[in-house]
Amino acid sequence: MATPFSFDLQLFAGEKTEDPTSKRMTDAHQKGQVARSQDLSAAIVILVGFFTLWNCGNYMYGELTQFMAFIFTNLQSPLDTESVVHLFWETMIVLVKILAPVMFAILLAGLALNYYQVGFVFSTEPLSFDLNRLNPVTGMGRIFSKRSLMELFKSIAKILVVGYFVYLYIVDQVIQMPKLIFMDLQMALVSIVDIIFKLAFEICTVLLILGIIDFMYQKWQHKQELKMSKQDIKDEFKQTEGDPQIKGKIKQKQKQMSLQRMMHEVPKADVIITNPTHFAIALKYEKGMTAPAIIAKGQDIVAQRIKQITRDANITIVENKPLARALYLSTEIGDVVPQELYKAVAEVLAYVYRLKKKKLA
């Protein structure tokens, strides 16, 4: 009689409690399902951009100064189509010179960070057409999903944390603002730029710390989403390694075919050595061979089958218990007789050849 507390363990077979296998991780990676933090990427890109501006500021200022001097010089002469085109191209060249260091640094930082996070991934699956994406019910489900709510919470937390640090910095710098009134224009501009860059670096530092935390969370979340049930692992094993029952049947069929091929070789033997009930070894020797070869061997039922075929083919059976056991345990089908058994096997073959001569006589 079932107890009141009895329950079926199979009810829990579908729970995804197991860590994802390497195959599942690889399949997800190939489909573009990877753990990646947009916050970390944005923080690094912004930090690299401001750092490049900070270090290349003098270069950019010099290029811009020369360009402004060029413009004011050319404005003194009358403008025509040729001079406007020339001015346009000069403007483009200066913009490229000014922006190239920043854009190149941001590009390298973005590529390096994305490669660090996910490696090299090329997948067209996210771009494939899926009608479910047009389904309003599915869309609402994505909007109010656990992931979307977590992203909303992260955005609010990021705004609050960054806003708090910006507030502390501005409160600290407000005291210094009145001093700008007593500075000349150049010194005032230098001080403002210094305040802006310090604020930018402080914000970038906060965003970088938040991005690292987010990246760790994304890796954990990605692993949770790929978790498998015990049944999933069994199904994957069947797909990769094959169904154990089918593999067993294949091995059984291969064994049967191998046994049949071996039995076809038995009538070609010169002698069968037995012990006499448990082992049977078929030996064949031809001119040019270094030693007699084992063309068939068997134990118990297979041994009896070998002896039955041998009797039907009128092949000599020699009973030698030690030799039969030694040959069975030390050789495989296709091997030649080991050197330490040459003498014993030679005596058996000599005996067989004498019997054949007597029969012919």
From TrEMBL:
It is found in: Cell membrane. It is a multi-pass membrane protein. The chain crosses the membrane at residues 40-61, 87-113, 156-175, 195-217. This is Flagellar biosynthetic protein FlhB. The keyword Cell membrane applies. InterPro entries: FlhB, T3SS_substrate_exporter, T3SS_substrate_exporter_C. Pfam families: Bac_export_2. Its main location: membrane. Required for formation of the rod structure in the basal body of the flagellar apparatus. Together with FliI and FliH, may constitute the export apparatus of flagellin. Keywords: Bacterial flagellum biogenesis, Bacterial flagellum protein export, Cell membrane, Cell projection, Cilium, Flagellum, Membrane, Protein transport, Transmembrane, Transmembrane helix, Transport. Belongs to the type III secretion exporter family. Gene3D superfamilies: 6.10.250.2080, secretion proteins EscU. One of its GO terms (cellular component) is plasma membrane. The gene is flhB. The lineage of its organism: Bacteria, Bacillati, Bacillota, Negativicutes, Selenomonadales. GO terms for biological process: bacterial-type flagellum assembly; protein secretion. It comes from the Bacteria.
